[in-house]
Design goal:
- Chain A has 156 residues and is mainly α.
- Chain A folds into 2 domains: 78 residues, Orthogonal Bundle (Rna Polymerase Sigma Factor, Chain: A); 78 residues, Winged helix-like DNA-binding domain superfamily/Winged helix DNA-binding domain (Arc Repressor Mutant, subunit A), CATH 1.10.10.10.
- Chain A is 74% helix and 0% strand.
- The relative contact order of chain A is 0.11.
- In chain B, the strands form 6 sheets. In chain B, strands 4, 5, 6, 7 and 8 form a 5-stranded antiparallel beta sheet that branches. In chain B, strands 17-18-19-20-21 form a 5-stranded antiparallel beta sheet, with no helix packed on it. In chain B, strands 3-2-1-26 form a 4-stranded antiparallel beta sheet, with no helix packed on it.
- The relative contact order of chain B is 0.10.
- By secondary structure, chain B is mainly beta.
- In chain B, a hairpin with a 5-residue loop joins β11 and β12.
- Chain B is globular.
- Classes of the chains: A mainly alpha (156), B mainly beta (357).
- At the A-B interface, α2, α3, α4, α6 and α7 of A face α1 of B.
């Protein structure tokens, strides 16, 4: 599990981009670490460990977002700090505008953008991490950029 | 890299730095628990469930499995020209491959169709393209691709993004929308001579969704210096500014379904009176996803003008046939179609980059 520890920072930062707050991001990575540790004996291809742990983190993030969607239905609004008004002071208004636009995207588009533009992961690995085909990765990113560009009034 | 991509990277990097190295609590390995006594009954139940599911699946398969794609009614298109992994192939309307279009000098990237012929964009270098014309025989057999006159076409947006190539209904002109040197740009190319006119803007702004009206002179697209609008450009008019294009409506829309939404792409319908728009709704459900519909709009007012058709996901793609009754879709690389107010898949394959019928 050395690899997991080596990548703890980048994995936590990746989770932050998807779930929006540090505390949840840390929990997500800890949970994914525990799950991966539990299954370590069943993983045959140890060269593919990094995509596997990234997938575990992304899947945990999805669970968090599902819970939030349920909470929203009963009137509990969660405002993750990265796209909250307070973040404007921390990151600047320009960055907050980007995160607000990101928040309006469907979950899958947001995940694909984080993997591509934060982690610099190629199509093949994004496909593996997200459990979708490479052509779906390409079309998802193209759509996400177009939608984001339109929301931000820019070239996609 | 576009402005959006640059801003995205910067925003991610800045947000990432809010978690400083060394500030994280160490990961802890959970203690192993003994296997509970409940694991045996759970395993038995799981095995039973698998047997039941397996039996159901086998039963389905013996009954023929999911229904095969149905052939279209008479009067509809008989063939699809699809771009898959750099190749152009002719398929029937149930997704069965019939012919491959002979290779050109590069990889096929996009296709646009008219009643009589197809136009293919072929990538020659990273940002240059040539255009070829192909006709199909009655059995779908493609002609040898003929290169259109004119210099290499340059675009940094590339093809494969939402609807950036369109052929006028009479096949006399191609339109390409995209970004060149950071500027949104419309190119209209005369298919016969290769001459082309350019409309551009000193401002940026994503430009997508090229579509020709039946008058063969009005080009529709989505663009705006701030938020995107549905715009109509008279390609025979004076001027070379994108701002000359008339605003039909904004891309935000409120309709009964899917509620408040954004128009991702639209096409002119052959009736000349209506458009079909693909609309992304507000985010819903446990998976934080949204609803998607195809929605008819009035070509004169831009207001909803018919019943929406639900789509299984976001397509950013809609192409009509010459009757307007058959709409082609590509969703996550997989082709589908809409007829009589219903969506159905054409194929299970998910490697379609573009297609036309």
């Amino acid at each position: 599990m050395t690899l997991f520890r080596e990548h703890q920072l980048s994995l936590t930062r990746t989770a932050l981009m998807i779930v929006g707050d540090r505390a949840t991001a840390e929990d997500v990575v800890q949970d994914a670490f525990a799950e991966t540790h539990r299954r370590i004996g069943r993983l045959t291809d140890h060269d593919r460990m990094l995509p596997y742990v990234r997938a575990a983190v992304v899947n945990r993030c999805r669970t968090v977002l599902r819970r939030r969607a349920l909470a929203l239905r009963v009137g509990r609004v969660h405002e993750p700090p990265v796209w909250s008004a307070e973040s404007a002071a921390m990151l600047g208004e320009d960055r907050r505008e980007v995160f607000l636009a990101l928040r309006r995207l469907p979950r899958r588009q947001r995940e694909a953008l984080v993997l591509r533009y934060y982690l610099d992961v190629d199509d093949a690995e994004i496909a593996e991490v997200m459990g979708i085909s490479r052509s779906t990765v390409r079309s998802t990113i193209a759509r996400a950029l177009a939608a984001l560009g339109r929301q931000l009034g820019e070239n996609a | 890299m576009t402005t959006t991509e640059r801003r995205l990277r910067t925003a991610f990097e800045d947000a990432a730095r809010t978690i400083e190295p060394g500030s994280l609590a160490p990961l802890t390995i959970p203690s192993r628990r003994r296997r509970g006594t409940w694991t045996v009954p759970v395993a038995v139940a799981a095995a039973l469930a698998m047997v039941l599911v397996g039996a159901t699946l086998i039963g389905d398969r013996m009954r023929g499995g999911p229904p095969p794609a149905q052939a279209l009614a008479a009067g509809g298109p008989q063939h699809i020209l699809a771009v898959r992994a750099g190749r152009a192939v002719v398929e029937d309307v149930t997704g069965h491959r019939l012919f491959e279009v002979p290779r050109a000098e590069g990889r096929y990237r996009a296709v646009a169709g008219t009643a009589r012929e197809f136009f293919l964009a072929v990538q020659t270098t990273e940002d240059t393209y040539s255009f070829y014309r192909v006709t199909l025989g009655a059995d779908g057999a493609p002609s040898r691709p003929r290169k259109l006159p004119g210099p290499l076409f340059r675009t940094q947006t590339g093809f494969g993004k939402p609807e950036n190539l369109a052929a006028s209904p009479d096949g006399s002109k191609l339109a390409v929308v995209g970004t060149v040197d950071g500027h949104a740009q419309v190119d209209v190319i005369d298919v016969r001579t290769g001459a082309h006119r350019i409309w551009r803007t000193p401002e940026g702004g994503a430009i997508t969704s090229a579509t020709w009206s039946q008058d063969n002179r009005t080009l529709g697209f989505l663009w705006g210096p701030k938020a995107a609008d549905l715009r109509l450009l008279d390609t025979r008019g004076d001027g070379a500014e994108l701002e000359d294009a008339r605003v039909l409506r904004g891309s935000s829309i409120r309709s009964r379904a899917p509620g408040f939404g954004l128009i991702n792409v639209f096409v002119f319908n052959p009736d000349g009176r209506t458009l079909t728009a693909q609309v992304q709704g507000t985010k819903t459900g446990d998976h934080d996803d949204t609803g998607y519909v195809l929605l008819p709009l009035s070509a004169s007012t831009g207001e909803p003008a018919g019943r929406p058709v639900r789509l299984p996901s976001d397509s950013f793609f809609v192409k009509t046939d010459t009757t307007g009754r058959h709409l082609l879709q590509i969703i996550d690389g997989r082709p589908g179609r809409v007829e009589d107010g219903r969506f159905s898949w054409i194929s299970r394959a998910a490697d379609y980059d573009d297609a036309a019928w």
